[in-house]
Amino acid sequence: MKLRPLHDRVVIRRSEEEKKTAGGIVLPGSAAEKANSGEILAVGPGKALESGEVRALSVKVGDKVVFGPYSGSNTVKIDGEDLLVMSENEILAVIEG
Predict the structure, then answer these.
(1) C-beta atoms surrounding 90 within 10 Å
(2) Strand, helix or coil at 91?
(3) Strand partners, 64
(4) Which branch of life, at top level (predicted)?
(5) Is the pLDDT assigned to residue 81 strictly greater than 60?
(6) How far from the centroid of its chain's Cα atoms is residue 50's Cα?
(7) 3-class SS at 87?
(8) Residue 92: band (very low, low, confident or very high) from pLDDT cuts 50, 70, 90
(9) Burial profile 29-55: b = 16 or more Cβ within 10 angstroms, e = fewer
(10) Residue 15: exposed, middle, or buried by beta-carbon count in 10 A (0-12, 13-18, 19+)?
(11) Between the CA of residue 3 and those of 14, 25, 35, 63, what are the distances in Å?
(12) What is this structure's pTM?
């Protein structure tokens, strides 16, 4: 990974967009909703507390996570791939199993 996030930020690769509805209707690319889940590719060192200590993040590289529909508004293009950079507090849950 050529991108190293700072502080409590993480870099996420968004999961593939859903191309079909639950009823089986195929959606064109512009109508498909963006996925609200992805895989963490890189994590920052942690959040700096007022005491000067650094609190490590609760997530790690490789975790599959869920985030809100308007989270991760910071996108970057690395090696032709769009990646999200967001703060750890924008992540709603880790998908286990």
Answers:
(1) 17
(2) strand
(3) 39, 95
(4) Bacteria
(5) yes
(6) 26
(7) strand
(8) very high
(9) eeeeeeebebebbbbbeebeeeeeeee
(10) middle
(11) 16, 37, 22, 17
(12) 0.78
